[in-house]
Amino acid sequence: MDELVVASFNVHGGVDGFGRPFDVVAACEELDADVLVLQESWSPAVGKALAARVGDALGYRVEELAMTEARLSAPPASASAPSTWGPAVLQRGPWGLRVGEGRPGHVPPRWRDTGTVEHGSWGIAVLSRVALRATATLDLGQLRRDPARRGAIALEVDIGGRPLRVVGTHVAHLSHGSVLQLRALDRLLAASETPAVLTGDMNVWGPPLSALLPRWTRVVRGRTWPAWRPVAQLDHILVTRGVKVLGRGEVMPVRGSDHLPVRARVALA
User: Fold this and answer.
1) What is the pLDDT of residue 102?
2) CA 17, CA 23: separation in Å to the nearest integer?
3) pLDDT tens digits for 198-219?
4) Rounded to an integer, what distance in angstroms lies between the CA atom of residue 47 and that of residue 65?
5) How far is CA 114 from the centre of its chain?
6) Is 50 exceeded by the pLDDT of residue 123?
7) What is the SS3 assignment for 63-131?
8) Which of 88, 90, 192, 253 has its CA 20 to 30 A from that of 243?
9) In this structure, are residues 64 and 93 in contact, taking their beta carbons and an 8 Å threshold?
10) Of the candidates 49, 87, 60, 30, which has an alpha carbon nearest to the alpha carbon of residue 254?
C-alpha cells in the first residue's frame, strides 16, 4: 500500500442528545477509511463495545483506551420524541451520554418515564484495516476540571515499505487547560523521527491549534461542530514533514453525532 485514508469521527457514544441511537456502523462505512479514529467511544460494562461492533462489521482491528466512567441513558419507547438532536442546554435531563459523575438536572415532563440506563466507560478507539508494525498508548494526564484522564493511541503502519505513525486523540477543552495536554503530546511525538499523522477532536479551532503545534500542518479546513449548524472546527487532521496529502482533506457530511467527521488521503513524500 502506497497511500492511506485517515479519518476521525467523534461519535458521541453512538447516540444523540436524548440517548437515541444512530447507525454508527453505516456512518463509519461511509467514511471508508484505512485508519479510523473514534472519540467518545462507548464501552458498556456488559456487552460489546461500540468500536468492537464497528470493527467486526467492517473488518477493522481495534485498539481502545478508556478514559473515564460514564453512563448512557435512553428514554422509554413510550416517550414523545422531539425531532431535535438533543434538548436545550437549560433543559438537559439525565438522558443521553453522561461522562464522569454527571448530574440529573432538569427533566422535561415528556422524558420523566423510566428509560434504560447502562454504565460503562468513555474513551477513544483507533481502528485499522492495514497491517500494523507497532502500537502504543500515550498518557496525557488529567486536568483538575476534567473528569477524564486523557490519552492518545499511536499506530505504526507500513506505507510502501516505510513506516508512518497515525496518532488518534481527544483532548480536553481549551478552557480546562488543554494547552498542557497538547504540549505534552507534541513532546512525546517529537521523540520519534518517523513521519506522522495526528487526528482527533482537539476541542480548539485551527489557528490556536497551529500555534500550539508548530511542527504540524493542518490538512483539513472546515467547520465540524455542531453538526446541524457548524460554527467551528474542533476536529482536525495534521501531518509532520515527510507526509503529503493527496487531493484535499475534507469535512464529511456524515450525520448522527454532534460532530462532523474529517478525512484525508495521505502518502509519504
Assistant:
1) 45
2) 15
3) 999 999 999 999 999 999 999 9
4) 17
5) 30
6) yes
7) EEEEEEEEEEEECCCCCCCCCCCCCCHHHCCCCEEEECCCCCCCCCHHHCCCCEEEEEEEEEEEEECCC
8) 253
9) no
10) 30
Domains along the chain with CATH numbers: 4-268 (3.60.10.10)
Is residue 157 within 8 A of residue 164, CB to CB? The reply is yes
Q: Considering only CA atoms, give the Rg of the chain.
A: 18
Q: What is the DSSP letter of 53?
A: H
> Which residues face 97 on adjacent strands?
72
CA distances from 68 to 83, 167, 183, 194, 266 (A): 30, 20, 22, 30, 32
Mean pLDDT over residues 7-29, rounded? 96
Distance CA(150)–CA(169), nearest Å, equals 8
* Spatial distance between the Cα atoms of 213 and 207, rounded to a whole number of angstroms: 10
Query: What count of residues does the chain have?
Result: 269
Nearest-angstrom CA–CA distance, 63 and 176 = 27
Helix residue ranges per DSSP H, the chain: 24-31, 50-58, 178-190, 206-212
